[in-house]
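User: Fold this; C-alpha cells only.

Assistant: Input:
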Amino acid sequence: MESADGTLLDPLLSLRLSIASNRTPIPTTSADATAASDATESLAIATHLQFSEPNRQSFPLDAPTRFISSDKPVDLRSIYFAWQKKDVAIPDYIASAQQLNEELSAPGGAGGKVQNLVFVERLDLITWLEGASDESEYIKPLDSDATAAQAAGSAQVASGAAGGVTTVPSSAVGGRLGKTIDPRLQEIYNGERRMGDRNSILRGIKPTDFSHVRKTAEIFLGRNRSRSNHPSSTNASIPPNPSNTVLSKKSTRRPDPIILLSPSASSLLRMSNIKSFLDSGVYIPPDNALAGSSTTANILHISRLLPSIEASRPLRFILVDTPEQFKPDYWSRVVAVFTTGQTWQFKSYKWQSPPDLFKNVLGIYVGWRGEDVPGTVKGWGRGVVSAQVEKWNQSQGGQGRWRDREVVEGIWGQVEESMRSRGWGRRGTGGEVRSAESGGGVGGGFDWLYLSSGHVDGSVAEAYLTTVS
C-alpha cells in the first residue's frame, strides 16, 4: 500500500516510526479495518498490522521484511511479536512463541508460524527499532534513494529529535546523506565505553624498540663463541681466575642420573620411603611413621657406588616422581622408572607408550611377595623387571626384613647393567645401546626380566644440577 507521496513504505520503517511516535500499530483481521470488531489483541487470529504513523496504512503480518535470519527474511508477525516480548526473559519468550504457533495452527487461527529469533538477533532488532542504532547487520539496506532518505528521516524521529528532518546537502556525493544527531543521543554516545577486539587491544600506542634485548642476549650467547673464534693476545698474560677454574671443572662433571618414581597412591615405593629402601635396604610402607622422609619432598638424592660405571667414587642419583620440571635433554639422564602398571603415569613423559618407554629406560615393578605381577606389566615385555618384597608386619616393624636387602641389591644390579649397556661407563650418557642378556635370578624368589636394546640421544644440561640441588 502506498503513502500520500507515492513512496512505497517499508514495514520495518513503519514499525520504527510508530514506536518513535508512541503510536503502537494495531493488529487487525482485515486489510482495511473500519469497524472496531476488526481490531484484535491476538496475533493468532490477526492477519494485518495497521499503522497510523506517518500515514494510515496496513501490512499483511505474513509479509517478509528486510530482517534476515538464517539467510531467510523474517515475516512481520515474528518481528512484531519479538517487539512485544522485548522485556521478557529468553525462556518466557521461547515458551510464548511455542504457544502462539499452536494457536496459529489451531482451527480459527490465521495460519503460519512465528520464527523464534535467537538472543543476538532479537537484541539487535530491538536496538534498531528503538532508534538506538542506525544500522543492523541483520537488516538489508533499502534499494531506492527515496526510501533511503525516508530511512534517515525515521532515524532522526526515532532518536528523539522532534520533527526530525534529514538535510541533504547539494555537495553530497553519490546521494550520501548528511544528518544532524540529536544532542541527547550524542550525550549517550559520549558516555559509552568503547569495546575493542583482540587486534585493537594488543596494538600499542607507539612502536617499541627491543634492540636492547638483543644486545643483552648477545652478552650471554655470543661471548664464549667470540672468544673461542677470536682469541685475544692479551688474555695470555692474564692469570687464570680461580672461580673460572672451578666452573670449568664443574662443567666437566658427570651429570647425575635420574630415577623416576610413580606418583600413584597405590605404589609401594613413594618419595617418603624410597630412600630407606634403596639406601638402607629396608622396606617401610610409605604412610608409616618409620618412613621418616617427608611426603612433601619433591626431590631426593641417593649416592651409590657402581663399580662398572665409576669405581673411584659413588654416583649421586636424583629421585623425582614427576617430570614437570624436565627439559628435553633431561630424558637422556633417566636410567630407571618405577611403575605400578598404570599407564596414566606416562602421559607427561617423552615416551608415552610403554613399549617405547621401556626400550629407552629400565622399568621396575615392585609388588608383594606371593602376588601375581599385573598382566599389563607382563605385556610390556623384557624392558620391565619385577621384584617382590615381604608384606609389612606392624608388630615386627623393620626387624627381620633381611630379604629386603637382597631385593635392593638385585635392583641396583639391574640399574647398573642397564646404565653400562647405554654407555654410562664410557662417557656419562648416550651412545649406542647394546643388547643385554637376561639377568639371572636373584635370591629370595626375586624374578627378573631384562629390557631389550634401545637408544638414548641428546646431551645433558648442567643447569639441572643447580636447579634441583
